[in-house]
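Researcher: Next entry in the queue.
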Amino acid sequence: MRPNIDISHTLNGRVKDYAEQQNVSLEEAYREIIEAGLEVVDHPDES
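Model: Structure for this entry, 47 residues:
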């Protein structure tokens, strides 16, 4: 089940900017950002 969370307008705007810069959909941008964040969480000593 996917969480239903509140995301600030500022944070959502940053993701929208990223999506535009990378020329990907907003959905893909969120996926990329979440996956990148999970990599950092899973491997904190490698950053």
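Model: The mean pLDDT is 91.
Researcher: Noted, moving on.
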